[in-house]
Design goal:
The chain is an alpha+beta fold. It contains four helices and five strands, in the order E-E-H-E-H-H-E-E-H. Strands 3-5-4 form a three-stranded antiparallel beta sheet. Strand 4 and strand 5 form a beta hairpin.
């Protein structure tokens, strides 16, 4: 049996979103450092281009990330940035990125 985000990701792309909120949050936390660097802000078009690496349904990913509080959206969609993370989030997240290969 697969655990964690394994059942929802294949070849670095999101297949589907977990129904359970805790597992969905884990998947979304996995996605953030693949989309945004610390302190980086992207336009909606830039964010969408990066999100296409992870999913064809970029609107759902963007909405889930904003609703989960992991990404902030400027008024009118003028920019997207990672929310202020807890201490050492980036170090842990980048370790997970390196482990993915």
């Amino acid at each position: 049996m697969k655990t964690g985000i394994g059942p929802f990701v294949r070849d670095g792309r999101i297949l589907t979103y977990p129904a359970r909120p805790a597992r969905r949050q884990e998947l979304l936390a996995w996605a953030v450092p693949r989309l945004l660097g610390p302190g980086e802000t992207l336009t909606e078009a830039e964010f969408t281009r990066r999100a296409l690496r992870l999913t064809d349904d970029t609107a759902t990913l963007r909405r889930y990330l904003v609703d989960a509080g992991l990404v902030t959206r400027r008024p009118g969609g003028a920019g997207y940035a990672a929310a202020v993370p807890p201490p050492d989030y980036w170090g842990q997240a980048m370790g997970a990125v390196a482990a993915d290969g």
